[in-house]
């Protein structure tokens, strides 16, 4: 094979690789992955924390045996309950950097007023030792909102206007964190998925952390009642951080240029 033909083939290969890499890094990379649908009736691979354990109204229950993940308390959670009866379940594999940037979604249902169904992103620390996190929540009989916590203190909050969560209704929450770009999209199960998130904003406070499901009574209310929340069908779609996408494309472009010069 002569040098000219070899160089031509090399240019074609590098160009194809560049196009594929560019498409991969500028679109939603990869396929939506099922994390857990709880159809096996267990929560293997999840680590749970229950702040109701040892309390007169507890302990709480995080039960996957109904082929969904049901969080509940046997009695009403009082106003003075630590973290308003919070229970969380962290997906163990989410400490892998692969899961830092992307879109998480889950089907949720709240069967009690002010009982929350929350997706936690970039969660560090713990309920026992202090935590930082982004929380994307649905509260039964109320609505949807976002909260940011730093060292266990609420430091930012916003709501999706005009969308109510009826008791017993199944909704989807999609929570996104890609670099400093955060988003929240919600829709009732069985209805068309919105094309755009209802909340989209920039927040660079928390760069890394784990994924978790959490429930508690709404901190903003004076409701005394039980926790009764269900999660199902948890999915993740990896999305590359924009700076990573640009770097990948740039490096391949440099390689293409170098090989081109050598073949001229």
Automatic annotation (TrEMBL):
It comes from the Bacteria. This is PEP-CTERM sorting domain-containing protein. It comes from Aeoliella straminimaris. The lineage of its organism: Bacteria, Pseudomonadati, Planctomycetota, Planctomycetia, Pirellulales.
């Amino acid at each position: 094979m002569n040098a000219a033909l070899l160089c031509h083939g090399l240019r074609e290969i590098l160009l194809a690789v560049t196009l594929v890499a560019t498409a991969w890094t500028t679109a939603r990379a990869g396929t939506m992955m099922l994390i857990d649908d709880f159809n096996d009736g267990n929560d293997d691979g999840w680590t749970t924390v229950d702040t109701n354990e040892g309390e007169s109204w507890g302990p709480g229950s995080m039960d996957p045996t109904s082929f969904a993940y049901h969080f509940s308390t046997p009695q009403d959670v009082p106003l003075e309950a630590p973290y308003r009866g919070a229970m969380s379940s962290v997906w163990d594999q989410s400490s892998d950097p692969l899961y830092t940037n992307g879109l998480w979604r889950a089907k949720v249902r709240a069967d009690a007023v002010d009982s929350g169904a929350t997706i936690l992103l970039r969660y560090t620390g713990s309920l026992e030792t202090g935590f930082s996190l982004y929380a994307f929540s649905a509260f039964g009989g109320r609505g949807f909102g976002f909260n940011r916590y730093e060292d266990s203190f609420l430091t930012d909050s916003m709501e999706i206007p005009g969308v109510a969560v009826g008791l017993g209704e199944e909704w989807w929450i999609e929570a996104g964190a890609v670099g400093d770009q955060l988003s929240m999209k919600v829709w009732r199960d069985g209805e068309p998925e919105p094309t755009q998130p209802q909340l989209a904003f920039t927040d660079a406070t928390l760069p890394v952390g784990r994924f978790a499901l959490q429930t508690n009574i709404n901190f903003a209310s004076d409701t005394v009642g039980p926790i009764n929340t269900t999660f199902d069908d948890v999915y993740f779609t990896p999305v590359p951080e924009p700076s990573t996408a640009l770097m990948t494309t740039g490096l391949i472009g440099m390689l293409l240029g170098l090989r081109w010069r050598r073949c001229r």
